[in-house]
Amino acid sequence: MGRIESYLGFAVRSGKIVYGMDNIETSRRRLYALVLGPDASVNLAERAERYAARRNVPLIKAEKPLEELIRKPNCKLVALLDANMAKAVISSVGR
After folding, report:
1. Per-residue model confidence as pLDDT tens digits over 18-73
2. CA 76, CA 89: separation in Å to the nearest integer?
3. Which helix (H) or strand (E) holds 59?
4. What confidence category does residue 79 fall into, taking pLDDT thresholds of 50, 70 and 90?
């Protein structure tokens, strides 16, 4: 099990995650990072990049599909609601 998978699992269990672009756009909570799966459509990727640039939120592109990482079917994009969890995921991407 990889580090990103562990961190995303912690976020899911603690309820510090938002699933999907529509829920992310309507969320009133502070978002600290977006995680995009490699199997996301071009349209979703562009929409997530625009949103991340507008809100000044880092966009992380995962190497494995999010369906495998968080075990939620048909999930392509998530947002992290915890600053420490987001920092941990961002730092583990380069490894």
Report:
1. 999 999 999 999 999 999 999 999 999 999 999 999 999 999 998 889 988 888 89
2. 16
3. strand 59-61
4. very high
Look at residue 52 and give its three-state secondary structure: helix
Q: Which residue type occupies 18?
A: V
Global pTM value: 0.91
Using the 8-state DSSP alphabet, how is residue 29 labeled? Answer: S
DSSP assignment letter at 10: H
Per the structure block, which two tokens stand in for 33? 């990072």
Q: What's the pLDDT score for residue 2?
A: 73
The secondary structure element, H or E, covering residue 77 is strand 77-80
Kindly state the helix (H) or strand (E) to which residue 17 belongs, with its residue range. strand 17-19
CA atoms of 41 and 70, how far apart (whole Å): 19
Q: Which residue has the tokens 């999907």?
A: 20
Pairing relationship of beta strands 59-61 and 17-19 according to DSSP bridges: unpaired
Beta-carbon count within 10 A of 14 CB = 11
